[in-house]
Amino acid sequence: MMELPATRAGHIGRALSATAILLFLAMPIVIILVTSFGADGIGTFPPKEYSTHWYEQMAAPGGNWATSIALSSLIASLTTVFSLILGATAATALARGRLPLHTAVYGLVLAPLLIPQVVIALGLFLFFEPAGMLGSPLAIALGHTVLAAPIAILIMISTLRGIDERLEDAAASMGANRMTIARRITFPLATPGLIAAAVFSFITSFDEFFIAQFMSTPDTRTLPVLVFNALQFDVDPTVTAVSAVLIALAVLALALVALVRKLGGHRDGRHALPVEPLT
């Protein structure tokens, strides 16, 4: 099909449309970032005066916000470890193994991404409540793993399928066992995927609300739960500072993933086996 030549007006129209869409999507983020530096106590936009008071209050040692941030960081770290273990093993079985009912197993692994989170949270509450584990960081981390592990598995499956299997075959032909191949070849080449899976698992846990709300206690409130409580009956301007920090964390995480992917692509290109032409 012959393409019509693009006109100058068409280029300008597309540029203006793209700019308008980006501004519309970025508007809530910009409003939160600007409001977080307001000096008033009602969170108005634009602020009449600017201050870092709400950031200082958020980071005050021993305060509710600092305690919740530390708890969320601990839970997210545990979730990341659990998700990487499950993600690496399940992705290896799905991408490299020949499992019976492969499609059914794959669908079961991804099911938590399709089920409403409130349903999963209720099921976890009914499971952990009789054991007296409500409020336990370990229990909340296990609950978050239910949501984070499928994401890690998807990333690891994509990563493993992008690795040249001839490298593993060459190592096996020279006498390397499966553990040696995994330790010396597969997982070093899969490092960008592992880092990406770790970043997204951490963010998924750090931002998760429903499971933390069902399983938290007055003494163990994660950051999203504390934000919800702070906005339920009143408007606490400290929430804007917390939101700004979460936005910065997400941006840094995405930048890290992009950097690792880029560096990993260059490394994979240097180590890939040459493809001989078909004759």
TrEMBL record:
The keyword Transmembrane applies. Residues 69-258 form the ABC transmembrane type-1 domain. It is a multi-pass membrane protein. PROSITE patterns: ABC_TM1. Pfam families: BPD_transp_1. SUPFAM superfamilies: MetI-like. It comes from the Bacteria. Keywords: Cell inner membrane, Cell membrane, Membrane, Transmembrane, Transmembrane helix, Transport. The chain crosses the membrane at residues 21-45, 65-93, 105-128, 134-157, 185-206, 239-260. The keyword Transmembrane helix applies. It is found in: Cell inner membrane; Cell membrane. InterPro entries: MetI-like, MetI-like_sf. Belongs to the binding-protein-dependent transport system permease family. This is ABC transporter permease. It comes from Streptomyces doebereineriae.
